[in-house]
Amino acid sequence: MDTKEIIDLDRRHVWHPCTQEKDHESLPPIPIDRGEGVYLIDTEGNRYIDGVSSWWVNVFGHSHPRLNRALQKQASRVAHHIFAGFTHEPGVELAARLCAKAPAKLEKVFYTDNGSAAVEAALKMSFQYWQQAGEPGKTRFLSITEAYHGETVGALSVGGCDLYREVYRPLLLEGFQVQGPDCFRCPHGQSRESCDAQCFDAMESLVAAEHGRIAGIIIEPLIQGAAGMRIFPPVYLRKLRALCDRYGVHYIADEIAVGFGRTGKMFANEHAAVAPDIMCLSKGITGGYMPLAAVLTTDEIYQVFYDDYQSLKAFLHSHSYSGNPLACAVAVEVLNIFDEENILEGLTPKMDLLEANRERFEALPHAGEFRRCGMVAAVEMVQEKKGKTPYPWQERRGYQAFQAALKKGALLRPLGNVVYFMPPLTIPEEDLQRLLDIAYEAIVEVTD
Ligand code: PMP
Predict the structure, then answer these.
(1) Could you tell me the distance, in angstroms and rounded to a whole number, from the CA of residue 292 to the centre of ligand 1?
(2) Residue closest to 265 by CA, chosen among 217, 222, 328, 228
(3) Measuring from atom 7 of ligand 1, which residue has the nearest CA?
(4) Which label site among 127, 156, 177, 407 has the fewest CB atoms less than 10 Å from its CB?
């Protein structure tokens, strides 16, 4: 098919994720032919730096020789088989290796096939735990404003981004929500450096009053991704862990976006030196190759489900593609690459480069904030800098920046008015600088 045929057929039959299809009248979807390292190449030969790791999944670049080989090798043995009553080498190796990298108390791995499904499994696991642990009143989950945990109904229920959930509100589960950290517009007048998570008080008083009804608290550690890469300091997580311990509430860490090196460490919770009771992983787990997710938990939680079948305590949750061998084989190779190619150690010059661009972005008249955590950085465009006045959302400044950047050869898919960078960890420094330059020009172009 040539480019036009692909687009015509797409327009006739395809409904894209998170898209107002009418936008395709002026900017049709771009058919991608192949990937090479950090570049995506379309059917016309145009090259785009993948500045957002294709929705935060890609870790080592596209069409990676080692990951290609791992996938092909596993495909020649078996692509998929049922994971109930059967098991396979990549699945057990991956589980063991994930547990070895995670905090010591996380010893058990439950596989699902995407991030939202992992969150659903985590919520159900926590809920059922309390039903079987003699505290049946603990049926609700607590989450924070602007949280994002996925699009399925359970995951959306613990979300806090109105854009994605408002229309579905009557469908959602009842839960508790408290104001989360908002470091850019901190109501306590603190900076991230001076912060002692004063905003945590809201969480503390709610949990003190309602812990008898709370099964777990779910949080995206350090970076609220979909909310616009809102970055908050580790002290918040330390307070959260202590609170969960004090009141007997599960700390559920959604590391789906921030895991696998994005924050400069393997998992974001390492910055706070805390261990969650349940940890959700996905996205980078297969380097962006295959849909896979994992829910890690403690032996203590696992044991509450472990009994004679007749007790009906089993976790009867399943997905057809649970523990898919192709995905697990690629994920094992991802961990091999992390270990053998010293990926985390290699991030320092790139994080320094991001930091070196801070001043330049901050000097822009419409850059409200340049924020960074590890390999993730974001520029929040504002209408008026002093008052941090946002641009009206209807103006779609971010979408305009997306279009401007595309023309210059970069895939940047902003969130609202926030242009962010979450490139593959292996991005060469010259490509990273080019990405930053393109973003800078795009921001200048769409702000006035
Ligand atoms: N949690 C977080 C923190 C996420 O960023 C995402 C996806 N952006 C999800 C959950 C949902 O994952 P998926 O898109 O694979 O369902």
Answers:
(1) 12
(2) 222
(3) 150
(4) 407
Which residues face 214 on adjacent strands?
140
> In this structure, which residue's CA is closest to atom 14 in ligand 1?
115
The CATH number of the domain covering residues in 69-340: 3.40.640.10
Q: Is the pLDDT of residue 439 over 90?
A: yes
Q: Which residues form the pocket of ligand 1, taking CB atoms under 6 Å from any ligand atom?
A: 114-116, 119, 148-150, 220, 225-226, 254, 256-257, 282
Give burial (CB, 10 Å; 0-12/13-18/19+) of 104. Answer: exposed
Residue type, 156: L
Q: Which residues are bridge partners to 252 per DSSP?
A: 218, 278
Find how far residue 217's CA is from the centre of its chain.
17
Give, in degrees to the nearest 5, the angle at Cα 419 between 414 and 422.
85
CA distance 192 to 185: 11
* pLDDT attached to residue 134: 98
Residue type, 40: L
CA distances 55 to 141, 170, 257, 327, 400, Å, are 26, 28, 9, 18, 18
Distance between alpha carbon 121 and the CA centroid of its chain, in Å?
A: 16
pLDDT on residue 368 = 97
Q: How many residues does the chain have?
A: 448
For residue 151, give both structure tokens.
Answer: 């699009």
Structure tokens at 409: 């050869």
Atom of ligand 1 nearest to the CA of 56: 8
Give me the helices (H) in 14-160, please. 53-56, 65-75, 89-101, 115-132, 153-157
Give the long-range contacts of residues 166-174, CB within 8 A, separation 24 or more.
Answer: 173/140, 173/141, 174/140
CATH number listed for the domain at residues 31-59+344-447: 3.90.1150.10
**25-56 pLDDT per residue, tens:** 999 999 999 999 999 999 999 999 999 999 99
CB burial string 393-413: b at 16+ within 10 A, e below: eeebbbbbbbbbbbebebbbb
Strands (E) across 282-440 are located at 293-298, 367-373, 376-384, 389-390, 410-411, 418-421
61 pLDDT exceeds 90?
Answer: yes
Are domains 31-59+344-447 and 69-340 of this chain identical in fold?
A: no
Q: Give Cβ neighbours of residue 41 (< 8 Å, ≥ 6 apart).
A: 32, 33, 34, 35, 47, 48
What is the spatial distance between Cα 139 and Cα 131, in angstroms, rounded to a whole number?
A: 8
Please, how many CA atoms are within 13 Å of residue 1, restricted to the half-sphere of its CB? 12
Locate the domains of the chain by residue range: 31-59+344-447, 69-340
